[in-house]
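Hi V.,

You were right to ask for the full record rather than a summary. Here it is.
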Amino acid sequence: MEKTNAKDFLGKEVNVKIDRQLGTRHPKHGFMYMLNYGFIPNTLSGDGEELDAYLMGEFEPVSSSKGKVIAIIHRTNDDDDKLIVSKDGIDYSDDAIRAVTEFQEKYFESVIIR
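Predicted structure:
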C-alpha cells in the first residue's frame, strides 16, 4: 500500500476507529489520553501504521466516531502526521488544538496545517 497523504483528508468527513479511549493510559509511556485517539482504517502513515487521528468534540470514551478533518498536526521531527477530526464540525483554533493534544504532542516538534 502506498503512503497516505494526510492533506488529502482536509475538509473531508472520515470514520475514526478509536484504539486509545479518552481517560486511558498509553501502554508503554504511561501518559493519559485527554482525547479519544485512533486511526483511519485502510490508510498508511509514515510510521508504517494507519494514519492517526485525534477526535475533538466527543467528551465520553467511544470505540468509533466520524467527523470532519479540520487540521493536521505535521510533526517536523517524526514521520507521523495526526489528523484533527471535529465530531461536531466546529473549527477549533490552533491554540485549542495545541492545548488538548499537548499531553502527547509536547514530545515532538510540529506545525498545524489547515
